[in-house]
Amino acid sequence: MPQNLDKKDKPQKDKPDKDIPVKGKKDKYHRILNAAIKVFAEEGFFHSTISQIAKEAGVADGTIYLYFKSKDDILLQFFNFKSARVLDRFRKDVNEANDAGSRLENLIHSHLREFQKDPNMAVVFQAEARKGRYLENRVNNLTKTYLGIVGEIIEQGQVEGVFRKDLYFSLVKRFVLGSVDEVINAWVNAGGKYELSSMADPLVDLLLRGIGSRSAMAGQ
Amino acid sequence: MPQNLDKKDKPQKDKPDKDIPVKGKKDKYHRILNAAIKVFAEEGFFHSTISQIAKEAGVADGTIYLYFKSKDDILLQFFNFKSARVLDRFRKDVNEANDAGSRLENLIHSHLREFQKDPNMAVVFQAEARKGRYLENRVNNLTKTYLGIVGEIIEQGQVEGVFRKDLYFSLVKRFVLGSVDEVINAWVNAGGKYELSSMADPLVDLLLRGIGSRSAMAGQ
DNA sequence: CTGATATATGAATCTACATTCATTTAGGAA
DNA sequence: TTCCTAAATGAATGTAGATTCATATATCAG
Q1: Could you tell me if B58 and B100 lie in one domain?
Q2: What burial class does residue A41 get, using C-beta atoms within 10 Å of its C-beta: 0-12 exposed, 13-18 middle, 19+ buried?
Q3: Are residues B166 and B94 in the same domain?
Q4: Nucleotides of strand D within 7 Å of the protein's CB atoms
Q5: Is residue A102 part of a domain?
Q6: Domain, as residue range, for A62
Q7: Is A7 inside a domain boundary?
Q8: Chain B residues within an 8 Å CB radius of A177
Q9: Which chain A residues contact residue B179 at CB under 8 A?
Q10: What is the average per-residue pLDDT within A209-213?
């Protein structure tokens, strides 16, 4: 029944490291996490304060430290949690199709859909993710995995003969990621006012065909 | 001879607002600015301290406030200064060519070249530019102008018939910006270890032709 | 109901810097 | 050489805000 089943029950001194209150369930944990993301999205990570987050979550400042090691830890947990969730979704949607073309399509649809579904997440990802220095590891994981998925699709497409074979591999991956990322960025900057998902088809088309006109591209 | 020619010479109280020491010329101003950018690039803006910057620049902490209103102001000045400089370069290089295709090529070459030339700037731009809230205006200015240049090129290319006419205009612009941006990002993340400029040609090729194979794209 | 443990609280603490300013130093006019 | 003003200095100041912790409250077993 006590929270730490495997330890002697030294009443105090166990580090607030891994032990999180269990009585109140995951409920409060997520309440705080969501509140934090909302605040981060509005103020930016560095300008956000624990007090703001606490108020937003409807708890006391101190309570936050029952669930998170530090302010940084909140952001970290967020990235871990969301990255996993989102990447899962991507993979699932990609596997929904079989040919490379449809898979790329699905990936991008999924990507835009997920970000549109959770604007706060989108803002925080766009704003704090590609930055780095101290979070880099975690976020790089998201980027790495994403690039991996794209890479697989590209390779498959080349085998299928629907994608060009003369591609600078690591460049193409960045090319795809960069385009999608910037489309999301634009949407975020615009305050999420329009349908992000509606960009998916035109974007896929651009990725596949490029901006050159048929005729101009004909000569080689 | 006094620094404020147009004001009564109240000895003290003039706000350190616009007046910058002139004796020591622009020299020290730029020394501090460059030091700051170096530190920002290494530590990230929020983790950088005035003391670090001062040490790097070889001046006293207080001296910085003779040249800048605040820490934020340093970043601001940097963006203003560099944006102008860089956009100028872009325009010049774009105008070096006459047809849209070459102009796009020049823009991207120029872009990668300039960022490669000044890695600290590149890092700070990539890291702090997309954040926002309080710098947004300035940075948006860079983005806006850049998108403008791209837009002009696209339009010209459509008239010339070398670019497709069925393009979602604002999307294409983001598409171009996003790709280039992410290529720079990758380079920055890799620690600037390779020739960034060498990505220009392959990237332009991707933008123009896309990743779809000729045959696959044939059927409309 | 009673005690015991788990949670929650928020005021008090502590620290890291940004910013200021009394003093010192440098430059140059007379 | 002597003054006077511009520049530079860096220790002292002030503050915001993260983190802690002594208390208070809720939960639950018996």
Answers
A1: no
A2: buried
A3: yes
A4: 5-12, 16-22, 27-29
A5: yes
A6: 16-69
A7: no
A8: 182
A9: 174-175, 178-179, 182
A10: 96
Type of residue numbered A126: Q
- Dump the DSSP string for B72-117: HHHHHHHHHHHHHHHHHHHHHHHHT--SHHHHHHHHHHHHHHHHHH
- Establish if A1 belongs to a structural domain: no
Of all residues in chain B, the one with the smallest CA distance to A205 is B210
CA at B40, C1' at D9: how many angstroms apart? 24
Tally of domains in chain A? 2
Rounded average pLDDT over B7-15:
33
Give yes or no for a contact between A151 and A95, defined as CB atoms under 8 angstroms apart. Answer: no
Once rounded to an integer, what is the mean pLDDT over residues A166-195? Answer: 96
Same domain, yes or no, for B31 and B58?
yes
Instruction: State percent of chain A over pLDDT 90.
Output: 76
Asked whether the beta carbons of B209 and A197 are under 8 A apart, the reply is: no
E-strand stretches of chain A: none
Nearest of B199, B169, B194 to residue A172 by alpha carbon: B199
Residue carrying structure tokens 């001296």 = B63
Residue A172 pLDDT exceeds 80: yes
Contact of A177 with B179, CB cutoff 8 Å: no
Q: Which nucleotide is nearest to A47 (CA to C1')?
A: D17
Please report, as a single letter, which amino acid is at residue B85.
Answer: R
CATH number of the CATH domain containing A36: 1.10.10.60
Q: What is the ipTM of this complex?
A: 0.88
Shared domain check, A113 and A38:
no
Model confidence at B5: pLDDT above 70: no
* Residue A151: DSSP 8-state: H
